Task: inverse folding
């Protein structure tokens, strides 16, 4: 386990993130794919720089790459252009955007430092700051299915994230949510994409929709689209059930080279298990 003080962590992050982008929002986890589409449908820019799997989990990029043709590596110019057009893009770290994090992220997986709170915080925040985020809601998981197995560790990570966010002048909120059992019903990259699409059609698992609507409500307030979280949550429910969130997801998939037919025929487009 590595130990850093707050000043060291902020210094590390400033080294990692490189250039800053336009104002927007970001969350992480399986939740982030449908949530990003919901928030983008509210008119809030969501430029996401996400990671791959660590330890026992599949990362956001791994899940999206289950969609044939989906490109997680696009140019900086295309990234900005797409966020302006669709209010949404989900990519990985590149040579110009959080370049050091891409290497450190891979090293953590093979040096038994996946659960290092300072390195987790540095990795999360470098990508968020690099994407131009000036307001952020982070969903910190706790429990058997999370890296942070105990509530104590989850609180420590949440505090580190909040301190870093404030240290770089960011509007910030961290929520701690239960991961003692899988969120939703699906486990596996293709299956989780299919479940995300079901949710965006208004047919998703109740627990996943509740979490997305809850976090989305806070983001709507921080994005000046709602005056209260209750109003923001209602707006999130509306874009889920009127098809606007699904349209946001489909536009992102199409513009990043993915097969947009995944929205209407996920079983026919996504890879399937042989047995």
Result:
């Amino acid at each position: 386990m590595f130990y850093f003080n707050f000043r060291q962590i902020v210094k590390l992050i400033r080294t990692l993130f490189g250039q800053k982008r336009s104002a927007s929002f970001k969350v992480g986890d399986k939740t982030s794919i449908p949530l990003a589409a919901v928030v983008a449908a509210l008119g809030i820019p969501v430029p996401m720089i996400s990671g791959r799997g660590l330890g026992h989990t599949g990362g956001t990029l791994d899940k999206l790459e289950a969609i044939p043709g989906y490109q997680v590596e696009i140019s900086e110019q295309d990234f900005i252009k797409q966020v302006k057009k669709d209010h949404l893009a989900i990519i990985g770290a590149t040579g110009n955007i959080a370049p050091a994090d891409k290497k450190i992220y891979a090293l953590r997986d093979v040096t038994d430092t996946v659960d290092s709170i300072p390195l987790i915080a540095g990795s999360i925040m470098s990508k968020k700051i690099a994407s131009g985020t000036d307001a952020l809601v982070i969903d910190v998981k706790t429990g058997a299915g999370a890296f942070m197995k105990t509530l104590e560790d989850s609180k420590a990570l949440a505090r580190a994230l909040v301190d870093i966010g404030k240290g770089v002048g960011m509007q910030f909120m961290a929520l701690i949510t239960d991961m003692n059992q899988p969120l939703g019903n699906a486990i596996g990259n293709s299956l989780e994409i299919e479940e995300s699409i079901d949710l965006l059609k208004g047919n998703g698992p109740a627990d996943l929709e509740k979490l997305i609507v809850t976090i989305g409500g806070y983001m709507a307030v921080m994005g000046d689209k709602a005056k209260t979280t209750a109003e923001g949550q209602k707006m999130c429910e509306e874009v889920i059930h009127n098809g606007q969130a699904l349209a946001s997801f489909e536009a992102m998939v199409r513009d990043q080279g993915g097969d947009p037919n995944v929205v209407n025929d996920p079983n026919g487009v996504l890879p399937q298990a042989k047995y």
User: Anything to note?
Assistant: Residues 117 and 219 are 25 Å apart (CA to CA). The beta strands are 46-50, 88-92, 135-142, 171-178.
